[in-house]
UniProtKB/TrEMBL annotation:
Keywords: Repeat, RNA-binding. It comes from Podospora pseudocomata. This is Pumilio y domain member 6. Signal peptide: none annotated. Residues 1-101, 638-668 are annotated as: Disordered.
Length: 676
């Protein structure tokens, strides 16, 4: 509660005749804003007022009503009237500023335009046209005003390509200044997000020669790095990154035929005398940003990688650089590096070249970040590097596996399905089991294989433990969690193609008791492959297809029945030891619907049962098939059509069924087995 103040008065000290000081009398204050009327006997001038006859000067303060203490109101004026007058004066001063009326009008237009769903298209076009009529030719005056720049951004949002180019050209020469503005910097992003080549080539060159200044600016640094990361071409990036090497590299081109290059090794090869100068300048710029805690910039990570790649092995410069990276408080630098291409590569190289102590400290820095890194296009490589480079497999398994998978007794289904189906996370979860297979590293991840090859070459001199021994130890540590995941969430995992591959790789390559996991996978095959949908189904949508009707489901069952992976060189299946014996686990589950399997898309699953050397119910299965021989014959010679009578565009021979000549190929092979 605000304190109450009494009317201003002069405080005087009262003394007794004997020199002692009298105690201050207690007084009560009247109600707020209450004026004390003088008595009739005092109105003749017997008393005096400080305002009339001078008196002590009062210290300025504020009264309860907000009026400045000691500042008298005009005669007959209340505090409300005084406040209204002050407000009017403020409005008059504001109106006296340049473009006051125009700014006020643009703000009203913006207030209307920003409510997109409440403005009809025709009215919005009229408002945009009016807005352009106001700002055209005076955009530089508007964009540096925090309230007016929003209207300009709205104009860009609804503008035509011609109008955007008009705005971009009108702002030429001011983009560096706009980048330093707290509000106008977003205008640059609005212009560049449209991916207009002409606008991009107008804006980005204006930053050349100013990179060092802008990257250290609290406002400009973020929009500059966004431009570098998301809008600039390869050549424009090279122009911007070269300025980290020294002022002269911002002005002159380098390389053969005059092309611009930011590859520091090429630059130093052409001008070796400048090596120490360039590295010192680059080191100073990177250190400056690290000390300011501005460590999230892609441009910074690119510059740091160039610096690292051009340091001599075992040099003092390299040791100092590693200490700077490790010594960053809270590990923000390493964590930010994990999510850019250059930063992740640099972190992997630090693991490769570092000592055992360095690797342990780097791994510790990423604690509580492994889950996020596993799904990142760049961060997942640091986890693969940790698998391949850290000799202390106990440290690796205790640090990484519980975070990305969870403990075996407390698994999260969402987390497991993410690790199985995400294009990057699945590499982290299956790399130790499957290695550098094409199915795990498609062409989109070719850069991953190149980096792994580089790391494997370095570890020959920096790692002590044999690579295969390290892998087996990690597989043994990871297997219990992976088998528990398959046992607990077999149905959820089998619903997708990647999930089925995840199940197959775990069951074929893991170590430990696989019984529960195999039974969970077999349970996914339960039920009738073609159930009739009830008419009163709620909701009235078809259920997901039975797993035997999907290509990935049939392939999963076939692989597990075979008990190993197919070797193209020998043309045979390399069975694992001990054998899975999945045929005996699956057969009791599908026995009641075996003919629907035999003539359906997963007919090769039934064929696999007959060919499995460890299948104990082979005679029983043959007997059932012989009883339905005519059904097999009809399926083997059936026309190649779907239920709707349309020829399918794709045929999958692996899961079964239709050959080029028509009919179910799996059913035809089953007939041959019966006749043998």
């Amino acid at each position: 509660m605000a304190p109450k103040f009494s009317e201003p008065s002069v405080k005087r000290k009262v003394h007794h005749n004997d020199g002692s000081r009298a105690k201050k009398a207690k007084t009560t204050t009247g109600p707020k804003h209450k004026k004390v009327e003088p008595k009739a006997s005092e109105s003749d001038g017997a008393t005096f007022s400080d305002s009339d006859d001078g008196g002590a000067a009062l210290k300025q303060g504020k009264t309860a009503n907000g009026q400045a203490a000691g500042k008298a109101l005009e005669k007959g004026q209340t505090s409300r009237e005084a406040h209204a007058k002050q407000k009017q004066l403020a409005q008059e001063r504001k109106a006296a500023k340049p473009l006051a009326d125009e700014v006020q009008r643009t703000k009203k237009l913006w207030e209307r335009l920003r409510r997109k769903s409440h403005v009809p298209k025709e009215e919005r076009q009229q408002l945009v046209d009016e807005l352009f009529s106001i700002i055209t030719g005076r955009i530089k005056d508007f964009v540096l005003k925090h309230d007016a720049v929003r209207a300009v951004q709205t104009a860009i949002k609804y503008s035509t390509p011609v109008q955007r180019k008009q705005i971009a050209k009108e702002l030429q020469g001011a983009y560096a200044q706009l980048a330093e503005s707290r509000y106008a910097k977003f205008l640059i992003g609005k212009l560049l997000v449209q991916n207009d080549t002409e606008i991009r080539d107008i804006i980005i060159p204006e930053f050349y020669g100013k990179i060092r200044k802008l990257i250290n600016h609290s406002e400009a640094s973020w929009i500059l790095d966004d431009i570098y990361r998301g809008a600039a071409t390869k050549e424009q990036k090279a122009h911007m990154l070269r300025e980290w090497y020294g002022p002269e590299f911002a002005l002159f081109k380098s390389g053969n035929k005059g092309e611009v290059t930011a590859d520091l090794s090429k630059i130093l090869a052409e001008e070796p005398s400048k090596r120490s100068t360039v590295l010192k300048y680059l080191c100073d710029m990177t250190n400056n940003l690290i000390q300011k805690k501005m460590t999230g910039f892609t441009m910074l990570h690119d510059a740091m990688l160039q610096y690292f790649l051009n340091l001599k092995p075992d040099s003092e410069e390299l040791k100092e650089f590693v200490e700077v990276v490790k010594g960053d408080e809270n590990g923000d630098l390493l964590k930010n590096m994990a999510f850019t291409k250059s930063g992740a590569r640099l972190a992997c190289l630090l693991l490769a070249h570092g000592s055992a102590k360095d690797r342990k400290q780097i791994l510790k820095t990423y604690k509580d970040t492994f889950q996020l890194m596993s799904g990142d296009p760049h961060g997942h490589m640091i986890l693969l590097a940790a698998y391949d480079l850290i000799d202390d497999t106990v440290l690796t398994s205790k640090s990484i596996f519980p975070e990305i998978l969870g403990k075996a007794e407390d698994l999260d289904p969402g987390n497991i399905t993410f690790m199985a189906n995400d294009p990057n996370a699945r590499i982290v979860s299956l790399y130790l089991f499957e290695g550098q297979s094409k199915s795990l590293f498609p062409s989109s991840h070719a850069d991953d294989l190149e980096l792994l090859s580089e790391l494997h070459e370095i570890r020959k001199t920096t790692c002590k433990k044999d690579a295969e021994v390290r892998r087996k130890e990690l597989v043994a540590s990871m297997s219990p969690q992976m088998l528990a995941a398959v046992a607990a969430f077999g149905k959820e995992l089998a619903a997708t193609s990647f999930g089925c591959q995840f199940i197959a790789d775990i069951l074929l390559s893991s170590i430990g008791d696989k019984t529960a996991a195999l039974e969970a996978v077999a349970a996914t095959a339960a039920g009738e492959p073609n159930p009739a949908l009830p008419e009163d189904a709620d909701p009235p949508y078809p259920p997901p297809p039975h797993l035997s009707l999907t290509p990935h489901g049939g392939k999963l069952y076939k692989t597990l029945i075979a008990g190993g992976r197919f070797d193209r060189e020998t043309g045979t299946v390399k069975r694992i030891e001990p054998p899975l014996n999945f045929a005996d686990i699956l057969y009791p589950v599908i026995k009641d619907h075996i003919m629907q399997w035999a003539v359906g898309p997963s007919s090769f699953t039934v064929l696999g049962l007959l060919e499995a050397p460890d299948f104990s119910s082979k005679k029983e299965l043959l007997k059932l098939l012989k009883l339905e021989k005519k059904t097999l014959e009809r399926a083997a010679t059936a026309a190649e059509t779907t239920a709707e009578g349309v020829k399918p565009k794709l045929k999958n021979k692996d899961n079964g069924s239709k050959s080029k000549s028509g009919g179910n190929q799996g059913a035809r092979l089953l007939l041959e087995k019966l006749q043998a």
